[in-house]
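Structure ticket #2291
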Amino acid sequence: NLSIRNNVLNQFAWRGMNLSATFPTAQIYDNDIYHTAPVTQPSANAFWGIKFATAGMAGSLLYNNFIHDIQLTNGSSSVIGIYLENGNSSGTRVKVYNNLVSLGAGIQPIVPLYGIYVYASSAGLFDIDYNSVYIGGSPSSGSTSSAAFFKQFSNATLNVRNNIFSNARSNSGTASGTHWGISINNTAGFITLNYNDYFASGT
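Resolution: structure written out below.
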């Protein structure tokens, strides 16, 4: 089985890790993903610490990864810690657990921030448990929002349990975005949404 473990990934402009191939029951764990100094993107693309975008990794485990201290000087259309774009529609569920995500203060462009983002435009069997997410920073302009956890479409089948979703991002100046602990665009697809701690202490 494929294992991606104990790596240090830093100073990348767009994607720390892009999982888009066919490796059933892979294990992705104990990776440290961060920036040591500000990074300038060549063009304005979405930024992901880890992107999971494949139906070919049923039964995979994504755990004990640390995404933090992301520093961008320009251009990103959004910044996402863990992006679950798509997954398998049958078979063994993908487990995303015990990850730490901290985003905010070092990101200079005024863009949407998301700790864990479930997109799942086609499918995704995900168990999202025991993760800790923190969103911080203080935008001074614009109307972009943020969320520690965000769900987009109805096609994912989710268990979301025992997580800490904390958002302390606070507007300053003329900024007018909304900053959620959890934001759900479509409520369909949840098996369980329970035993999570939500904090939204920002303004």
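Closing remark: Residues 10 and 115 are 18 Å apart (CA to CA).
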